[in-house]
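Narrative summary of target 7.
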Amino acid sequence: MKLLQNVINHKINTINRAELLKYANQYNVSLTTKQADAIVDKVKGKNINIFDDSGRSKLVKDLAKVIGPSKAKEINQLFMQLIR
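Modeled conformation, tokenized:
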């Protein structure tokens, strides 16, 4: 299980705009390129662990400041689907 967590966290920490938009579309989350860029800026290279509740919560709060609370909530739901 730890290996799968590492793979998912690595993907999040190295994601680019095109990949994020692809995943958002796949999970029915509408994102603009500007929003995707803001999300990538917040996560890329930050060594975020979405399996850690407090770390994920902090990230979602940071995202809410740049992409809005409703969109941050959608991103959190996407994270929750990934960690199940």
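The longest helix spans residues 53-67.
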